[in-house]
Amino acid sequence: MRTSPPGPSGCRSSARPGATRRLAPVAGPVLAGTAAVLLLAGCGTQTAATAGARTSPEAACVVPGDPVHDAGPDAQDVRITSLTGGHAGCGGTAPDAPLRVGFTVANHGTTPMTYAITFTLFNDGGAWGTVQGEVADVAPGGTGRAVVDAGAQPRIDQVRVAKARSVPAAEAPAAVGPCPPSGVRLTATEESAAMGLRVRGLRLTNCSDRPYRLDGFPRVELFDEDHDAVTGVAIAQGSGGISTGTGFDDPVRALTLAPGQSATSGLLWRNTVTDGTPVNAPYARIYAKPGAAPVMVTPELDLGTTGKLGVGPWRKAT
After folding, report:
1. How far apart are CA 80 and CA 161, in angstroms?
2. Which of 18, 21, 31, 114 is the most exposed place for a label (fewest CB within 10 A)?
């Protein structure tokens, strides 16, 4: 189901005309699962406005808007529950107080899920920047809660859900916190792009107290935004003919990672669109080696109509 864009908020911006728009540094997201639920700060004696609602000039509160049109199916389960801070316009806070976005996410599935929600902050009708919050291990039928600290901001007049993603809690990447039972952390790194060629890195770190051996390529399975398996895409070990000079066709070498050491691989594709329907695969399930526990990452693969994805060999990180 797609939602229509919200109406005007009726709020005014305090930003100077022509000023460079830049998102202030953002503190790390506050995590909350079903076992540790945060109490969300209220906005004085008021409640957050409903999606698309208008506020009176005197109140000048930040308005939570409907999700953007391509936020994903999970966005329908996200609700912004509070917006507080010095420039939220809800009264009583110091001018330099950070903007905080409280939200809930409901799990309507049958397995525990971990959610990553991206919010866009709007200033005077234009997108100012984004912040992200996570809610870990939400039980089936349960609701997770969290508050994102967006730092000091100019007058923000609307906050909307820009993207919502969810992965099975048992397969969620563990970038921080205790070492997973597998003994390794596996995460997707930043994407690089040039003239339609895309590369998304994978990084594996041995966080255990014993050596970890790799020999070959990670195994990759792709899923769409409804978590259905993506078919019709050839996943190749190496570049798969997508591009040369990328290092994806380098010889495979056996690796042994000592505790604390890392290895890297990557995903290679083009987003060319010709005849047919473009394929998007926001989710990828990664097996570091045969028998390894799977980890589901969100590389946001826009594969166009190419039907190809290359997977690089594991190489020891320098």
Report:
1. 8
2. 18
pLDDT score at 89 = 52
How many angstroms separate the Cα of 10 from the Cα of each of 51, 99, 139, 313? Answer: 13, 19, 38, 53
Give the tens place of pLDDT for each residue, 282-308. 999 999 999 999 999 999 999 999 999
Q: How many CB atoms lie within 10 A of CB 134?
A: 20
CA dist., res. 55 & res. 35, Å (int)? 35
Distance, in Å, from the CA atom of 5 to the CA atom of 13, rounded to the nearest integer, reads 20
Distance CA 136, CA 146 (A): 10
Q: Say how far residue 191 (Cα) sits from the centre of its chain.
A: 13
Non-local (6+) Cβ contacts of 44 within 8 A are: 90, 91, 92
Question: Which residues fall within 8 angstroms of residue 237, CB to CB, at 6 or more apart?
Answer: 216, 217, 311, 313
Note whether 220 and 284 are within 8 A (CB).
yes
pTM comes to: 0.78
Domains and CATH numbers, the chain: 1-168 (no CATH), 184-316 (2.60.40)
From residue 204, alpha-carbon distances to 132, 141, 197, 212, 274 in Å are: 23, 33, 23, 10, 35
Measured between alpha carbons, how far is 60 from 46 in angstroms, rounded to an integer? 12
